[in-house]
Amino acid sequence: MAITAIPYSNLVSNSNLADPAGVSITSGAANRGQIPAVPAANTKVNALPELTLLRVVNGSSAGNVVVKAGATPPALAAGQGDLTVAVGANATLWVGPFESGRFLQSDGSLLVETTQTMTITAFRVPRNT
């Protein structure tokens, strides 16, 4: 199974952020995007699913983006299943934030699959610490 890392882009409180390029995820369960448990080294706080937004940019055909249910434990509500969101052709959609209790993997990451090749950018919402 090919897993492609999707790094965090940190939204900045009271400031701005240049539009980051996303990561292309090829369709199919054999190819997944993984949002890491620990964001880039320049952040002070580990990003949690509750602080994560995904920007999904779809190409020429409609498809789905699937945020995979987590592992139990730590995701005690993983039994609710995956979150599947339809993304229209040539559309951009924002998905999230997410519940740790449903989507957190055992290594602290989030897993994403697509039914079409899509570009995904993960954003970390800032929080005072």
Walkthrough of the structure:
With 129 residues, the chain is mainly β. The protein has one helix at residues 100-103; strands spanning 2-5, 8-10, 23-25, 31-35, 52-58, 63-67, 83-87, 92-95, 110-114, 118-124. The strands form 2 sheets. The chain has a 5-stranded mixed beta sheet with strand order 1-4-9-6-7, with no helix packed on it. Strands 2, 3, 5, 8 and 10 form a 5-stranded mixed beta sheet that branches. The mean pLDDT is 87.
Feature tags:
129 residues, mainly beta, Hypothetical Protein Tm1070, Chain: A, five-stranded mixed β-sheet, 1 helix, 37% strand, globular
Per-chain topology:
Elements (H helix, E strand, L loop, with lengths): L1 E4 L2 E3 L12 E3 L5 E5 L16 E7 L4 E5 L15 E5 L4 E4 L4 H4 L6 E5 L3 E7 L5
Parallel strand pairs: 1-4, 2-10
Antiparallel strand pairs: 3-10, 4-9, 5-8, 5-10, 6-7, 6-9
